[in-house]
Specification:
disordered N terminus, mainly alpha, 3-stranded antiparallel beta sheet, globular, about 525 residues, two-stranded antiparallel ribbon
Length: about 525
């Protein structure tokens, strides 16, 4: 890479690097423009159909909806999470008198995700299961679109972006976590929104960041850039992720470091002599302010209901509400660190790559067309096994490519490295808590990065323009065969992702490993 070569290659350069399939799709300017808006529309519509059709099934609180749906309605009616009495789950189904006590309850997750769930409930009412899940379904669909847009900006390729978006659209983990009112799908949306904003900041700022500062024309130093609206937007998005679940903080930290590292590499390419120091100690504090301060503001703002009322947990513990909130957070932290209670679907993070224990979100007794003794209805959060295992293999390949590039002194391709940053943020921290009770479905936040890495790897398999024709043809056929099998597997698993009543022997065919039962 030359000193003048940008970190993100120009779109027209990226479009011409890989094989003939893309050339045929974009062979004319008019067709190229049509595909550029039509492809994301189709992918998003596909995701919406798979997530919204029959969204109200099952019409009962499934798995941890028992916490988040009730807390959402409490936020909507009280402004904070109250205490629920007995038979509350049944009351939500029949719309009996809801046993909500205004006494503040100790809740261990921030409020934003539950406020979003509450918006759907406000439209449909507390007994409307579509309303419970509307926010997660819409944001899950939005996550697919964000994945497409991120892949498009990383690679410049409509084809690669379409593959990445489609893989996420038809993946079971994304479908299930979009059709159930849990927080993890909402968390994933805000993480991906922050990633898109970081890429937009990179495209705008990297051409400027290596220029000499007007106040410091010395080539020892580069330019310090304050005007970075997309970085502020990224901070707002990551702050929203933190306001859904604290694990969003890992994404904020990881992509904050990504910004500093890419700033440093831009300075090195521009010939700045002290490029590491310049990026870390001159531009770094500015980037920190632009990113972390908005994130903190969004997080605090998410607690507005708790601030403006007096009944929330610990609200009156101290005359200063910020002191009370701090002590509340200390109690929340102690809970999360000490959460080691057993659960039949608990799966430590080291098991996740092997997909040993996916979570059964709901098992129903709907007899279906074949009688109660022969049918079963299940919602299992298992991903499409081909997408999952291929995505894990692609991540290992990308890590190999990164190590090889670093050892050779070359700047790695962002399309191959950004997925690794996302996986580091959404997976590695969980390895630090081996005794904590965690679940396989937490990996929904990993899935967009896995499909981004998989799509980039499939692009490599498909071949480059300058490869011999037999090599390109062989690569494209291999990719197409793989994608066909992926679609067929999704069709096969769709009934157990959406709680359809199926014959018991048919359900057993989906349990490929003992822990999948």
């Amino acid at each position: 890479m030359t000193a003048s070569e940008p970190l993100l290659p120009a779109p027209e350069t990226r479009l011409t690097r890989y094989g003939s399939l893309r050339d045929r799709i974009l062979q004319s300017p008019d067709r190229g423009r049509t595909v550029r808006w039509f492809a994301p529309l189709v992918v998003t519509l596909l995701a919406a159909v798979l997530r919204l059709v029959n969204l109200g099934h099952p019409h009962q609180l499934a798995f941890d909806e028992t916490y988040y749906v009730k807390d959402a309605w409490s936020l909507w009616t009280l402004g904070y999470e109250g205490t629920w009495g007995e038979n509350a789950n049944e009351a939500f189904i029949t719309l009996q008198q809801l046993p909500l006590d205004p006494k503040g309850a100790f809740i261990v997750h921030p409020p934003l995700g539950k406020w979003l769930i509450a918006l759907g409930m406000a439209i449909g009412g507390p007994d409307n299961s579509v309303g419970w899940r509307l926010a997660t379904a819409l944001l899950g669909t939005g996550t697919v679109l964000l994945t497409y847009l991120i892949a498009r900006r990383l690679t410049g390729s409509v084809v690669v972006a379409t593959v990445a978006g489609t893989l996420l659209a038809i993946d079971g983990l994304g479908i299930v976590l979009s059709r159930i009112a849990l927080l993890d799908g909402i968390l994933t949306f805000f993480i991906m929104l922050g990633v898109l904003f970081v890429l937009l900041d990179r495209e705008r700022v990297l051409p400027l960041i290596g220029q000499s500062d007007a106040d410091a024309p010395d080539p020892m130093w580069g330019r310090v850039v304050w005007r970075r609206p997309w970085l502020v937007a990224a901070g707002l998005a990551f702050g929203a992720a933190c306001a859904v679940k604290w694990s969003g903080l890992y994404a904020l930290a990881a992509f904050g470091l990504y910004v500093v590292v890419t700033d440093a590499l831009a300075r090195r390419r521009a010939g700045v002599v002290l490029w590491p120091t310049d990026a870390a100690f001159r531009q770094g504090p500015v980037s920190f302010v632009l990113m972390v301060v908005p994130a903190f503001a969004v997080y605090v703002a998410s607690w507005t209901g708790w601030f403006v009322t007096s009944g929330g947990y610990n609200r009156t513990l101290d005359p200063n509400p910020f002191v009370s909130l701090w002590r509340y957070h200390q109690a929340m932290l102690n809970f999360h660190v000490g959460l080691t209670s057993g659960h039949p679907y608990a799966s430590p993070a080291w098991e996740w790559p092997f997909l040993l224990r996916p979570t059964a979100v709901w098992v129903g007794s709907d007899p279906g067309p074949c009688g109660i003794d022969h049918c079963i209805a299940v919602i299992s959060s298992i991903p499409n096994p081909l997408i999952w295992y291929a995505g894990v293999a692609a991540a290992v390949y990308l890590l190999y490519r990164l190590v090889r590039a670093v050892m050779a002194g070359r700047a790695p391709d962002p399309a191959l490295t950004l997925p690794l940053v996302g996986l580091a943020a959404t997976y590695v921290p969980w390895l630090l808590f081996p005794d904590r009770t965690v679940f396989q479905f937490y990996t929904v936040a990993m899935m967009p990065f896995l499909v981004l890495g998989l799509a980039a790897t499939l692009r490599v398999i498909a071949g480059r323009r300058d490869d011999p024709l037999p090599r390109r043809q062989s690569g494209e056929r291999t990719v197409m065969i793989f994608l066909v099998f992926v679609v067929l597997v999704s069709v096969f698993f769709y009934p157990v992702w959406t709680g359809m009543s199926v014959p018991y022997p048919f359900w057993l065919l989906h349990n490929w490993l003992p822990g999948w039962v």
